[in-house]
Amino acid sequence: MSKLGALLRSAVLLRPAASTSQARACLHTGPQQEHKTFYEFRTYSIHPHQNAAFLKLTNEKIHLRTAHSELIGYWSVEYGGLNQVFHIWKYDSYSQRAAVRAALAQDPTWISEYISKALPMLTSQDNEVTYLVPWSRLQKPPKEGGVYELASYQMRPGGPAVWGHAFQAAVCARDAPGYGKLLGAFHSEFGAQNQVHALWWYESADHRAEVRHKAHNDARVVAAVRNSVTHLDTQRNRLMHPCLFSPLN
């Protein structure tokens, strides 16, 4: 073996054991999910001429569904998606959700009085499984009424280890007096990966517009957003009105 080869071999053998832990750290994707509780986001698109009828039917029969599991909120989308409703359901585990779906399939009243009538009114359905991010808790709005905004961010691959702190800083910069009220921040488990959502409450659509204008002139918010958008691919916002039967109303 040449002198150079011997030196290289010795360097490999004598490499500190800490390098293994460093390699593992590089593969770590950020804060791990500590709770089993998850939230299912569901979006239904409705035939335009059936929108009013669908909302009326759901208002009258939603109790058949909430008898099986907890509804967090139900909204009609005003901007960012025409003839759509968005709703959030809470589950303690995947086995609970499976049991709920099985029970609904065997519930003749639910099927005859709601599903058989509602499904022909829909053009599509979409769902996504999400968890609250580790630094967020589900909140209630400060008062009844108002409007809600769901801001959805498709982040670049890499996970929270790459963009988690920047996203948190950008969201928390606006979760302050004089801005909107953050009700929850979520990350996707099933659906588009590296996707996060922020659910906001405002007194009105005009209040939301005022907040956006204020944020654009707030150096603190602008700096936090600039750091976050370097990790952002796309963003989608929906402004929503709560339905009469929505727990978040």
Can you tell me the CATH architecture? Answer: 2-Layer Sandwich
Mean pLDDT: 89
- Spatial sequence of strands, sheet with the most strands: 1-3-2-8-5-7-6-4
- Count of DSSP H/I helices: 8
The CATH class turns out to be: Alpha Beta
* Number of extended strands: 8
Proportion of residues in extended strands: 25-35%
State the domain count.
1
Order of helices and strands: HHEHEEHHEEHEEHHE
Domain NIPSNAP: 39-137, 148-247
Protein name: NIPSNAP domain-containing protein
Pfam families: NIPSNAP (PF07978)
Family: Belongs to the NipSnap family.
Structure description:
This protein has an 8-stranded antiparallel beta barrel, surrounded by 4 helices. β2 and β3 (84-91) form a beta hairpin. It has 8 helices and 8 strands. It has 249 residues and is α+β, with helices and mostly antiparallel strands. The longest helix is centred in the first third of the chain and has 16 residues, at 51-66.
